[in-house]
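Backbone-to-sequence.
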């Protein structure tokens, strides 16, 4: 029978999940409309009273918004898995909520309520009922919950002697003698089946790497083969030219940046396919390869926001699934 989840854990995961979803939507819309006149004017009006130069701060601010978007996506995923008892997701959600509380508190009076919410999430996740529940779910039941220490590992002279119904010591079976069983055929041990978290991680990593390789390869081919036409398109389009002017780069620089970005994405996607196949074989190093490639995928996808949003989400899910105890045990079996 499953252990009921405490209300504190449920509330913390609901608050973290809803906050992550709302922040993801708001940050995604901001990045999608970054080059619009409305967003640029709003950012400039907010920076000028602080005495900051908008032209110098806006590129850095865009990187900060990208980082916040990645954190909000991670908080949403961590909230889902923490509600199921995943210890690493609990730690991840606590770190993001704690850092968010400090960041919001530094913004002044407007950030007091979000800071209080972030602090509340951390408190609920590490309250006494939450600690006990996570201990039970992860197989580390504390003695305070009523468990008794096992005596199976005690020396033979201190173990209780089993009694028969007549009160006499029960007859013990003879010890196992390997010589009596010499020459008998041994029963083969069936290999353990692949756990569900491993299968889900392999499917997400494989499909994400495949579509990433195809998409980035096509875009890279267009940028290389039709470089002059792409530059002319940027120069002739007023909207695109305005976005480049607000970012402080030229059309040639934009095409060069895009070439390096999609080239890097192509390389990481190919490495993702190799790491997925390696992990599917069950080798311990395959686990590490897929973890490293997932981190690289999330980093490259963050540079390509908002297009890379799905790849960031997929990379986080893959890392969470591979960090589950049954997944680690399956990779260690070799």
């Amino acid at each position: 029978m499953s252990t009921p989840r405490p209300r504190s854990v449920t509330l913390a995961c609901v608050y973290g999940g809803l906050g992550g979803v709302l922040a993801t939507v708001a940050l995604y819309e901001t990045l999608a409309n970054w080059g619009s006149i409305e967003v640029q004017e709003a950012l400039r009006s907010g920076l000028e009273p602080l005495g900051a130069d908008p032209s110098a701060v806006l590129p850095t601010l865009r990187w900060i918004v990208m980082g916040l978007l990645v954190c909000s996506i991670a908080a949403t995923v961590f909230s889902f898995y923490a509600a199921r008892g995943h210890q690493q997701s609990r730690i991840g959600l606590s770190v993001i909520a704690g850092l968010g509380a400090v960041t919001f508190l530094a913004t002044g009076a407007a950030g007091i309520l979000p800071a209080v919410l972030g602090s509340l999430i951390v408190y609920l996740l590490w309250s006494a009922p939450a600690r006990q529940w996570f201990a039970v779910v992860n197989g580390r039941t504390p003695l305070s919950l009523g468990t008794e220490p096992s005596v199976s590992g005690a020396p033979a002279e201190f173990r209780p002697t089993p009694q028969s119904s007549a009160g006499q010591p029960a007859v013990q079976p003879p010890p196992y003698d390997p010589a009596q069983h010499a020459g008998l055929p041994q029963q083969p041990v069936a290999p353990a089946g692949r756990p569900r978290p491993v299968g889900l991680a392999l499917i997400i990593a494989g499909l994400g790497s495949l579509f990433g390789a195809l998409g980035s390869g096509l875009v890279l081919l267009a940028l290389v083969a039709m470089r002059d036409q792409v530059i002319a398109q940027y120069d002739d389009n007023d909207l695109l030219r305005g976005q480049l002017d607000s970012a402080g780069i030229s059309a040639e620089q934009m095409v060069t940046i895009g070439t390096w970005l999609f080239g890097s994405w192509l390389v990481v996607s190919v490495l993702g396919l190799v790491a997925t196949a390696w992990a599917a074989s069950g080798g311990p190093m395959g686990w590490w390869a897929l973890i490293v490639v997932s981190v690289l995928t999330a980093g490259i996808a963050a540079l390509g926001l908002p297009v890379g949003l799905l790849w960031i989400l997929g990379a986080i899910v893959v890392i969470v699934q591979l960090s589950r105890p049954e997944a680690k045990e399956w990779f260690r079996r070799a």
